[in-house]
Amino acid sequence: MTELSSSHRFVSLSPQSTDGHFFRPPLPPGHVLRPRLCERLASGLSGRLILVSAPAGFGKSSLAIEFCERLPPQWQSLWFGLSRRDSDPGRFLERLLAGLQQFFPGLGDDALGLLRLRQRHQPFAFEEWLDGLLDELTLRLKPDSPVLLVLDDYHLAQGAVLDRCLQFFLNHLPAGLLLLVTSRQRPDWHLARLRLSRQLLELQEQDLRLTEEETGELLSRHGATLSEEALADLLQHSEGWVAGLRLWLLAAAEAVVDGEMTRPHGAEGLIREYLLEEVIERQPPEVQAFLYDTACQERFCAELCDAVREAHDSAAILEHLQAHQVFLVPLDEQGRWFRYHHLFSDLLRARPAAALRPAPTSAHLRACRWFSGQGLLDEAIEQALRAGQPDVAANLVQNLSEEQLLAEQNVATLLRWKMDLPDSLLASTPRLIVLYSWALALACQLDAAEELVGQMSRFLPAPSAVQQQSLLAQWQALCGVIARGRGESLSAQRHCTEALAGLPMERYGQRLMCLSTLANLAIVQGDLWRARGLNREALELAQRVGNPLFEALAHYDRARVLQARGEVQRALDEVRQGLERLRGLPHQRLYALRARLTLYEGYLLSLRLQPQLARQRLTAGIAEARACRDVSLLIGQCVLAGLEGREGALAEAFARLAEAERLMHVWDVPPIYYLAMITLAKCELWLRQGQFEVADAWLVRLAEAYNGEQAAAAPEFHPQLPLYIELHQAVLERQQGERSKAERRLRALVQRAQAMGGELLAVIARVQLVLLLRASGQEREARQQLSDALQAALGGALSPFQDLLKAHPDWAREQLLAQPEGSQREALLAELPTAPAVASVEPDMMVGSLSGRELAVLKLIAQGYSNQQISESLFISLHTVKTHARHINGKLGVERRTQAVARAKSLGLLT
């Protein structure tokens, strides 16, 4: 725990004392120290204004007290606790001057007399009075002994005249004086100039929310721990609201069972009373009515509120709520969409039934009509269902195009609607049948999808030949995707090919799904060139229709082919192009495709030996895939398990795979989607554990299933699975000493991979062959195979060499130094666990020249942290991080981060 500085002078002025006794409140009992925020506030000491504005109970005053106690020794602080009486500018200025006189005796004696002679009913030239006082204060202030003036709870005194006074005060603030203001609403000051000149530091609600670690610290102060479920519930509902957590925990004493807290009872009443007294009842009647009328909406804007309330004043009321910080959470940068803080909305919705105006049913129906008119069909459908009108919801579902569903692939929402709609409605029209069949197919509910798509026969023959052809083609497309899911390659290829021949161009979404399926099958069949051609056709179609989601899908499919060909960097660029196409879409919406691209970016980063960045992207992708109910999260879990296995965290890796398998069971996903992938990932872990017998038994079973006479088709997410089974069998044979069998298998695998253009697999097999040849004493061929592998890996694959670098670091360094200079060679040299010191630089001297903080920054740079992440990890400002980075580069004689890491490793500064 950071020791608080108390060596600086301070004076505080409380609203209860007007007799010259000044007092700054102490930190409240159980206060959780917040050094990360104090560090941010400290970065504003060179400016003019530090503004901390947030709703009630977010710890503004406590943070200001903690910051005052942490001030550098040369700083003095004046605490000014405001009350409603201070809204009189004359009284405020009189008290302010009395406080400043504690530091500067005699300051403004004449001005004080003039202020006391004023009459309330007569106008007073406050700005002229301030101008004279500031001139005198400027002569008294010393740069080496600055003063921090704290105005706590400014919202209590805020008014038009006082705002103008303090605006003038800020505009003419002398050097050596800094203003810190805490308030529940942003003062009505013109701050743009201060912001542009970097003289303003501002913290708001999102900055003051308690982090998970700070919440844990708060819990530990109560001497008990929450269960995992209760903690998750507490974090979700409190959203980091300090007062809400304290009120919640105030009722926790009775909820402690065997030393562990369950969800505390009674806290809801305390929070209700606090919010009612501190927030709701302080609002004007029309604002209170607005709060209750709009509480049933998950998100809202002024136009929606007008529609729900049948009124025209919502924009003005929302401006009032924003100005007074009444628990509004903005949802976009434009300031159009909002929601209420969860605890606040829970309270509003719990009001007595008699107070409901309008009734929830009518409110939801009005919202439904408004959303439908805006083209926001998914939200309109939600509102219809919440109003208890499934027939209205079904009619709206029919307006959802297959293209929108196939582009977003967020089937969780559609399946949730399915649960609320009667089965008779689901099969009532061809459109509903097609929509829900696609949703079930994308969710891997193959049996249910097949059963529902069979219902299309009831609508045949169609009224016209054109409709007949369209229905049959849509049926073919669905059958093709379902067959691919079952691993029935020939049937899938036939159905998708026939669907492409019959689908009209306006069904471009289904055409693109067929092209994607056929490209995936081409990879399975080892025809990467055909897959590449299908990818090109899909991208051209997506660009022609101008749909960013389908363009992103085409980039995803192209990246998969490029990765298989060993062009890892190009694949990574392709994935990032896909993500860039999604950047303009609403960020709050969930997209399965964005999850897949994010996961694939993490996988490619792992191939580039950037594990820290890979973990970040994989974790983000898993979260979004889980929310969309997309089975692609399996990729992320398997890749993360592989990373953990290579780092020796085998227990964590097995647990991750078990969790992935459990989730597949919960989602009722057919085993063909996941079982082989998870089993192969386990085999890799068993090989690292030395459990050869277990690995052997399962590899034999996998080989029989996917490489036997009646081989099953590889799963969609691992189209080259049969070849990777062969690879693991070769690794097992090498580790068991069966070198001849391993060598034959590896050489055959290299040839098969190269014949199909699968250079990545060929590189992996060559590196394993190098390890085998070195163990057999075949030094010359080992060098040649490594040289060939390095040449084939110029596309950016680095992870295949990782085992070799660890097993034979000195030999690998020698071989790498014999290769032409380039980014690949430098990156691999930087991964070597040890390196001899460069003759011109003594490592001990270099260690001494780098400070402890610079070494800490350098270690995080080596792990792939961004400057912002380093700032948050080390609790230092972003400017300080950049300064350390410049010093590190200068001392190591390099220009870029990657060069600094490579140089430090070669000097032995990093291991």
UniProtKB/TrEMBL annotation:
Top-level taxon of origin: Bacteria
Coiled-coil ranges per UniProt: 725-752
Keyword terms, alphabetized: Coiled coil, DNA-binding, Transcription, Transcription regulation
Keyword Coiled coil found: yes
SUPFAM superfamilies linked: C-terminal effector domain of the bipartite response regulators (SSF46894), P-loop containing nucleoside triphosphate hydrolases (SSF52540), TPR-like (SSF48452)
Keyword Transmembrane part of the UniProt annotation: no
Entry protein name: LuxR C-terminal-related transcriptional regulator
HTH luxR-type domain residues: 843-908
PANTHER family registered for this protein in UniProt: DNA-BINDING TRANSCRIPTIONAL ACTIVATOR DEVR_DOSR
Name of a matching Pfam family: TPR_MalT
